[in-house]
Amino acid sequence: MKGRTIQDLDTPALLLELSVMERNLARMVQFIDQGPTRLRPHFKNHQCLWLSSKQIAAGAIGITCARVEHAEALVSHRISSVLIATEIAGDAKLSRCAELARQAELILAVDNPHVVADIGRIARNKRARLNVLVDVNVGQNRCGVEPGEAALSLAKAALEQGLVVRGVMGYEGHLNLRPPSPEKENACRAALQLAVDTRTLLERNDISCDIVSAGATGTYSITGRFPGVTELQAGSYLTMDTSFLQSTTDFERTLTVLATVISKADGKRLVIDSGRKALSGERGLPVVKTVQGVRLTALHAEHGIIECDNPLVPVEVGDKIEVWVQYADTTIQLHQRMYGVRAGRVEEELAIVK
Ligand SMILES: Cc1ncc(COP(=O)(O)O)c(C=O)c1O
Prior knowledge:
It is a single chain. The protein is of the alpha/beta class. Helices cover 29% and strands 23% of the residues. Helix 3 (68-76) packs parallel to helix 4 and helix 4 crosses helix 5. The structure holds pyridoxal-5'-phosphate. Pyridoxal-5'-phosphate binds at residues 42, 45, 85, 171, 173, 176, 216-217, 233-236.
């Protein structure tokens, strides 16, 4: 395996430039080291246990994830503290959570009293210690109870069920992709204040909270310094993608898809063997990295269509070219593995957890 070059890989292949990933990792470590907020990076971006281990080795206090199967993979990988930041409902999945809670610290985001009652019943039956964060809607209008009294009432319900209330989550995802501006900063602060004020309300009601969790790659520099936020959930910073460049240029893109040119209409068009099954078109069409004067203009299921602005583009059928990943979350999950590469050589073959 080792000693192979990128050109030896079959396509489509997802490539991760290791030296750039290491720079992103170090950049976040440097940021976190200067402030009180700790990092609990989100797993849903890279879905790669090898990368989670790198983040933990670099000081992350645990991992955030969205799914029970990802939490299971993380705990099997000896990650000792996992936050599932997406609401879980239904006995089958909650029972798996209770099993996990017997092996590691598991924290669940909750926003519903019926689910809280279910978690309480299952935790008692399984003699598991389940921690919860009251998820507060700070403006994204996705999950979360309203800040203030509604959150307090849910926290009380969780305590009555014998659950351990650890604090509050207030994910400001609606601001994640906004370009930097004073308006973004103000909106972010206002959103986070709702979460922090809710924590204060809980504490005034004798519910002690050690966690206020928030944050994303596009807001990390604001959220990671906001007084009262204890944990940052940013995940995409490590691999980055083209879509996040609109909200921060503090991190560099690491990911490309290596594709083979399978057809060429001279001076007009190239076709690659990577369509929507290898490259996500979510958040815009991906951009070709390694060939100048061309534009990817369409993704079919199995074909990527590239228009040539330069009619003399020096690419032939059979050549391999790289395309930047536009949105890492929805691209990585299309692949079974990613190849960690450095200076054109393949160093790692990394499994992607499904
Ligand atoms: C609950 C939650 N937390 C944090 C994040 C931030 O992740 P990222 O750094 O990839 O923007 C997301 C992204 O969708 C999320 O859904």
